[in-house]
């Protein structure tokens, strides 16, 4: 996909952090984007903010909950209606609950799995026909926690280990149909994840725009080459 002006991307959790930066990076290259949030107001506000930057691409905000398959299908359909196709899916929406297993609640476990794993399944299934039709690109945003376990991470580790395995299996399922699939596994990123407020002390961390640039770079890779699993970490730990 050398010419990203031919891209219409569907990005879950696109109103802030990594998702927003991916949308902005793609729009800078001339791509159109559909960004989703569980709040229509938040989705529309983020899209308006992106469009106000005067970037060559266009943004559309859509209310959608990754836990609900129908809402994912409707959001993809909005993208097709607005931009003619959806040929890139970026499954980014995620949540983190961190506690020792003795304290982790059933509700926290279920929400983590529902959003981080089942939610990606729903997003992939919703966009799959479009990806196959247009020989598109699927990217999932996993985590280094998908290969490195840690204390208080039983729910998060389970979801991200599962996401890495899911994505790699999907890659094998669809690559013969011209669809490229990558999972990006960031370490510490300066975002609002898990209630954090980015600040000057986060300078050592990966910045959201770094992941946005990585998505652009992956899309521009030669068609013959597929970085199917990309680990990314801060150059110097804080």
TrEMBL record:
PROSITE patterns: ADH_SHORT. One of its GO terms (biological process) is monocarboxylic acid metabolic process. SUPFAM superfamilies: NAD(P)-binding Rossmann-fold domains (SSF51735). It comes from the Bacteria. It holds the Pfam family adh_short. InterPro entries: KR_dom (IPR057326), NAD(P)-bd_dom_sf (IPR036291), Sc_DH/Rdtase_CS (IPR020904), SDR (IPR050259), SDR_fam (IPR002347). Residues 7-193 form the Ketoreductase domain. Belongs to the short-chain dehydrogenases/reductases (SDR) family. This is SDR family oxidoreductase. It comes from Neolewinella aurantiaca.
């Amino acid at each position: 996909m050398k010419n990203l002006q031919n891209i219409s991307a569907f990005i879950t959790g696109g109103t802030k952090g990594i998702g927003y930066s991916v949308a902005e990076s793609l729009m800078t290259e001339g791509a159109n984007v559909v960004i989703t949030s569980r709040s229509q107001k938040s989705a529309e506000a983020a899209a308006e903010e992106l469009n106000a930057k005067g970037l060559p691409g266009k943004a559309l905000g859509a209310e959608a909950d990754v836990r609900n398959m129908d809402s994912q299908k409707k959001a993809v359909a909005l993208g097709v209606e607005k931009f003619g196709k959806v040929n890139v899916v970026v499954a980014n929406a995620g949540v983190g609950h961190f506690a020792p297993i003795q304290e982790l609640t059933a509700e926290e476990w279920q929400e983590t799995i529902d959003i981080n794993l089942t939610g990606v399944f729903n997003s992939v299934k919703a966009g799959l026909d479009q990806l196959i039709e247009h020989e598109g690109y699927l990217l999932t945003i996993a985590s280094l926690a998908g290969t490195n376990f840690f204390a208080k991470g039983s729910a998060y580790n389970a979801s991200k280990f599962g996401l890495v395995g899911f994505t790699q299996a999907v890659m094998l399922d669809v690559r013969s149909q011209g669809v490229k699939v990558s999972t990006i596994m960031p370490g510490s990123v300066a975002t609002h994840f898990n209630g954090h407020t980015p600040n000057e002390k986060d300078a050592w961390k990966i910045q959201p725009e770094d992941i946005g640039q990585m998505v652009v770079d992956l899309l521009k890779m030669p068609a013959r080459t597929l970085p199917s699993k990309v680990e990314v970490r801060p150059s110097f730990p804080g």
